[in-house]
Amino acid sequence: MPAMRLLGLLLGLLAGPAMAHGLSEVDPGSLWSFDPWLLSPLYIVGIGFYMGTQRLWHHAGGGRGVSFAQVAAFWTGWLVVALALTSPLHWLGERLFTAHMIEHELLMVVGAPLMAFARINGPMMWSLPAALRPAIGRALNWPILARPWALISHPVSATALHGLALWAWHAPPLYALALQNTGVHRFQHISFFATALLFWWVLLHGRGSGRSVRLRDGIAIVCLFITVLHSGVLGALLTLSTRLWIPAQGVFAAEFGLTPLEDQQLAGMLMWVPMGILYTGAALFFAHRWLTSMDPHSRLSSVRPG
After folding, report:
1. For the segment 254-274, what is each residue's pLDDT rounded down to a tens digit?
2. What is the largest CA-CA distance in the chain?
3. 8 Å CB contact between 73 and 201
4. Residue 212 contacts by C-beta under 8 Å, 6 or more apart in sequence?
5. Which run of H or E residues covers position 74?
6. Of 162, 165, 185, 225, which sits most exposed with the smallest number of CB within 10 A?
7. Which residues contact 244 (CB under 8 A, 6 or more apart)?
8. Which residues are CB-contacts of 271 (< 8 A; sequence separation ≥ 6)?
9. What would the 3-class secondary structure string for 164-209 be?
10. Taking the model in full, what pTM does it have?
11. Which of 100, 35, 107 has the alpha carbon at shortest distance from 248?
12. Separation between Cα atoms, residue 302 and residue 96, nearest integer Å
C-alpha cells in the first residue's frame, strides 16, 4: 500500500469516524464513552494529585517537592489518557484495529511516561490527611507490600510485565475475548496502562544514587532496546501477515477504504514504526544522561589513546 495512502487514511481516521463514508448518520454524542470503571480511578488520581500538589506547595513553596515541569507532565499525560478512554477513538477502537492501536499507543508511550515522570507518589501521599500519612508510610513498608513491590519494580520484572501485556493481549483468542466481554476489555486497558506506567516509573525513578544512577540509566537503555525489539517483531508480524488475526476487529475497515487485512497491517505498521521511534528516542535520552553523568576523570580516561 503506498505510503501516501496510508497517511491519508490515518488522517481521515483521526478526523473522526463520523466523517467516514457510511457513518454520517451516527449520533456524535454516542461516540463518547464514560465508563465509570475506567474513569473513576483516573479522576481519583487527578483529584489526589491536585490536592497533594497544593498542600505540598503551600508547605514548602511553589515548585518544591514536585516541580512545575512534573505538574505539567502529569496533567498532559492525564488528559491524553482521559481522551484515549473517552473520545470517539475509544469507540472506534472496538471496531477498527488501527484505532485500537492508536489508542493503546497513546496510553503506553505517551500518557504513561508523562505521568511516570511526574512521580505522583509524593503528591498522592500529601493529598491524605496529615494524621494518616505516617501510618500509610509505615504500612507501605510492611513486608507483605514491600517485598512484592521490590520484585515487580526490578527493571527486568517491569520490562517483562510490560512485554507480556503487549504480546498476551494481541494473541487472537484473548483479543477476541476482550471484544466480546466488557470486563475483560476493561482489564485489557488497565493492564496496558498499569504495566507501561510501572515500566516507565522504574526506568525514570528506580532506586539509585551517585554512580548507581549511571548504572540505572545503563539498565534503562538495555530494557528499552529489548522493548524496541520485541514490540517491533510483533508489529512486523501484524504488518506482514497474510491472514487476519482477529476478524471481528475490522468490521468498520471498509468505511475507511480498507480491507480488514489492510486495517490489521496498518495497525501493525503503527506499532512497528512510530512506537519503535518513541522507545528509541527514550533510549537516546537515557544514553545522553548516562554519558553526561560521567565525572571528568572518567571522560578523559575513556577518550585517552592507548
Report:
1. 877 888 999 999 999 999 999
2. 74
3. no
4. none
5. helix 68-86
6. 225
7. 250, 260, 261, 264
8. 101, 105, 231, 232, 234, 235, 238
9. HHHHHCCCHHHHHHHHHCHHHHHHHHHHHHHHHHHHHHHHHHCCCC
10. 0.86
11. 100
12. 51
- pLDDT tens digits along 132-143: 989 998 998 899
d(CA 260, CA 249): 8
The C-alpha cell of 301 is what? Answer: 580516561
How do residues 185-236 score in pLDDT, each as one tens digit?
999 999 999 999 999 999 998 765 445 777 788 889 999 999 999 999 999 9
- Cα 179 to Cα 173: distance, rounded to the nearest angstrom: 10
What cell does 119 get? 512521580
Residue 151 C-beta-side C-alpha neighbours within 13 Å: 6
Tell me the DSSP string of the chain: --HHHHHHHHHHHHT-GGGSTT-TTS-GGGG----HHHHHHHHHHHHHHHHHHHHHHHHH-TTSSS-HHHHHHHHHHHHHHHHHHHSHHHHHHTT-HHHHHHHHHHIIIIIHHHHHHTTTHHHHHHTS-TTTHHHHHHHHTSHHHHHHHHHHTSHHHHHHHHHHHHHHTTSHHHHHHHHH-HHHHHHHHHHHHHHHHHHHHHHHH-S--THHHHHHHHHHHHHHHHHHHHHHHHHHHHHH-SS-S-GGGGTTGGGGT--HHHHHHHHHHHHHTHHHHHHHHHHHHHHHHHHHTS-HHHHHHHH---
What pLDDT is attached to residue 207? 64
| pLDDT value of position 8 | 55
Q: What's residue 3's pLDDT?
A: 44
Mean pLDDT computed over 95-123 = 93
Residue with cell 466481554: 181
DSSP state at residue 132: T
**Which SS3 state, helix, strand or coil, does residue 26 take?**
coil
For residue 143, the SS3 value is helix
Nearest to 231 by CA among 111, 89, 104: 104
